[in-house]
Amino acid sequence: MFPEYRELISQLKSNHPRFQSLFEKHNQLDHEISRLEGPSGTGYSNEVVRMKKEKLHIKDEIHKILKAENENTVK
Predict the structure, then answer these.
(1) Which residue intervals of the chain are DSSP H helices?
(2) By three-state DSSP, how is residue 75 classified?
(3) What is the pTM for the complete model shown?
(4) Which of 15, 20, 57, 69 sees the fewest Cβ atoms within 10 Å?
(5) Is it the case that residue 69 has pLDDT exceeding 90?
(6) What long-range pairs does 33-42 form, CB within 8 A, spacing at least 24?
């Protein structure tokens, strides 16, 4: 996720509590979705759809933080 921000992600995971929380929640959802879908990816349900939407929302929030922090370091 966001390889162009790899270094910034490492920094924020250790010193930005909101980012850290979002990052962990995104990873938890990713693992849970994979578990529910199964190895063939066919375990599709309303719960998986809900989780994917939540994961996408979290990813958007993470990206907003990354963009803002990146702008602050460039200045």
Answers:
(1) 6-15, 17-37, 46-74
(2) coil
(3) 0.88
(4) 15
(5) yes
(6) none
Output the six-digit token pair for 5. Answer: 């921000």
Distance CA 58, CA 14 (A): 18
Q: Which of 3-7, 34-38, 41-45, 69-73 has the highest mean pLDDT?
A: 3-7
- Find out whether 52 and 37 touch, Cβ atoms under 8 Å: no
pLDDT band at residue 8 using 50, 70 and 90 as cut-offs: very high
- Quote the Cα angle for 25-29-34, to 5°: 150
Distance CA 65, CA 67 (A): 5
Residues 6+ apart with CB under 8 A from 45: 36
Q: How many CB atoms lie within 10 A of CB 23?
A: 19
The pair of three-digit structure tokens given for residue 35, joined into one six-digit string? 């578990």
